[in-house]
Write a structure and sequence with these properties.
The protein has helices at residues 13-18, 24-36, 74-78, 118-138; strands spanning 40-46, 52-55, 63-66, 84-88, 91-100, 103-112. With 145 residues, the chain is of the alpha+beta class.
Length: 145
Amino acid sequence: MQQDEAGPFPVPLEDIEAAPPTDAVKVFAHRLTEEFGAGRVSFLITDFAGRSLIRLGEGTKHEQVPLDDEDLPYGLVVVEQQVQVVPDGAGARVLAPVTARGDAMGALDLVLPSTPDEGTLDRVAAAAHALAYVVTTERRHTDLY
């Protein structure tokens, strides 16, 4: 079920609950890829020290990204809790805070084929907020998050 452009992001809870806890974020990312036509969707989780983000990858391969990377303003996303849009070729990269009840868990990173309008940014922000609750729930079942 797809909402209109300004509507909230529909969360596929049945698909997430059917997946193993370690795959919950992958299932969520796949849904976002379909919903937004994104070239890439990833979740970056904050490290214990709060100085960098870890981009969750396939298997045990994870990329570490410093929060002070000036090319991609992750610090503004995580610390200031602001959605950021960064030009990326013909499209744009959207970085949204993944936060639940004030707990900044990381960032949602989407590469979109075009510059998003305000309605799309609102939907990405809603998706990032929903992702925070997915991560919170799945943390009880795996140490991945």
